[in-house]
Amino acid sequence: MSVAPHRPPDRGNAATSHSFGPEPRPLSLLINGEVRTALADPATTLVEFLRDALGMTGTKIGCDRGACSACTVWIDGEVAASCMTLALDARDHSITTIEGLARGDQLHPVQRAFIEHDALQCGFCTPGMVMSCAHLVNNNPECTLDDIQAAISGHLCRCGTYPNIFKATLAAAAEMRAAGSEESK
Ligand code: FES
Ligand code: FES
Predict the structure, then answer these.
(1) Which domain of life is it from (predicted)?
(2) In angstroms, what is the span from residue 10 Cα to ligand 2's centroid?
(3) Per DSSP, what are the bridge partners of residue 96?
(4) Pick from 46, 138, 140, 147: CA 20 to 30 A from residue 181's CA?
């Protein structure tokens, strides 16, 4: 599975960054394939928009200053810190959050592997970790331990579950390689 960068439809965001605010106004963003609209002001970050305006609390706030990666989402298929992104700047981009990673009842291989390999304790860092690890295995199913360590080098896990995160991500990558070779038969 990969997230193909695509442009959202014209959602009538007539306001520009210059004309938006200072009072909250309706803002429409493409999130997990759906247009979602809620109030935002110019200082609203993407993670605040997700959590506070839309009630999508899967994405966590750890440091709120770009230092822990708990708030990781995908923007146009690339990992991004949603606490460092203004909601306004996410207009005309496609956002994927942890809530949008599964396909119906089918968890992403990284989500399944995190469960099977006990790769979480308190779980606070987990959504962000999963988004970065899923991005890695989607784009590089041949990834090595070094690749995984690099992919999550900006993530802080206070519970120290790194060894099991590495095992889970290697297992998910192996599953995706196996699925890929099945498909090519
Ligand atoms: S909450 Fe965004 S990087 Fe820590
Ligand atoms: S599982 Fe607790 S912070 Fe990572």
Answers:
(1) Bacteria
(2) 39
(3) 74
(4) 147
Asked if pLDDT for residue 7 goes beyond 70, the answer is no
Bigger pLDDT: 13 vs 82: 82
101 lines ligand 1 (CB under 6 A): no
* CATH 3.10.20.30, domain 25-100, yes or no: yes
Task: Tell me if 25-100 shares its fold with 109-179.
Answer: no
What is the rounded distance in angstroms from the CA atom of residue 119 to the CA atom of residue 123?
9
Q: Which helix (H) or strand (E) holds 28?
A: strand 25-31
User: pLDDT tens across 60-105, in order?
Assistant: 999 999 999 999 999 999 999 999 999 999 999 999 999 999 999 9
User: Which ligand minimizes its atom distance to the CA of 129?
Assistant: 2
Query: Into which CATH architecture does domain 109-179 fall?
Result: Orthogonal Bundle (1.10)
Per-domain boundaries in the chain: 25-100, 109-179
Tens-digit pLDDT profile for residues 42-72: 999 999 999 999 999 999 999 999 999 999 9
Tell me the pairing of strands 34-40 and 25-31: antiparallel
